[in-house]
Amino acid sequence: MDLTTCYCRNRYCARYGLTGPQARLIRAGWHRRAPQLECVDCRHRFSARAGTAYAGIRSSDLIFRDGVRQLAEGASIRATARNIECDKDTVLGGCRVWADIVSDYWITSCVICI
Ligand SMILES: [Zn+2]
After folding, report:
1. Domain that includes residue 84, residue range
2. In this structure, are 78 and 42 located in the same domain?
């Protein structure tokens, strides 16, 4: 997971939205297999997965990424579940989370839709 794209999630912080070295984030342990970050300025703690396609996913990043790649290549939900050795309902749940994030992106960022 690329932590250089993370930023302070506290809307009232002066560093809200700043990424890379300007974000001034430090690692603050782990929560549900995901790194937790802390803003040096406001001390707000949040999951590095917050606001990303990984939010709410309980499996490891590698398994999730592998499953998404297989689905993007056209594999069925059942085939993907067999390949990454998990239940088909787990893959389906991941698809719903992913679809919500992608649709939010298109609704708020797509220059064609705005
Ligand atoms: Zn902050």
Report:
1. 61-109
2. no
Here the tokens at position 90 are: 């787990």
Cα–ligand 1 centroid distance for 23 (angstroms) = 8
How many domains does the chain fold into?
A: 2
Q: What single DSSP character describes residue 39?
A: E
Asked if residue 66 is part of any domain, the answer here is: yes
The overall pTM is greater than 0.70: no
Tell me if 56 is assigned to some domain. Answer: no
d(CA 11, CA 106): 22
pLDDT in tens, 68-114: 888 888 888 899 999 999 889 888 887 777 777 666 666 665 555 44
Rounded to whole angstroms, the Cα distance separating 74 from 78 reads: 12
Cα distance between residue 88 and residue 10, in whole Å: 36
CA of residue 6 to ligand 1 center, whole Å = 11
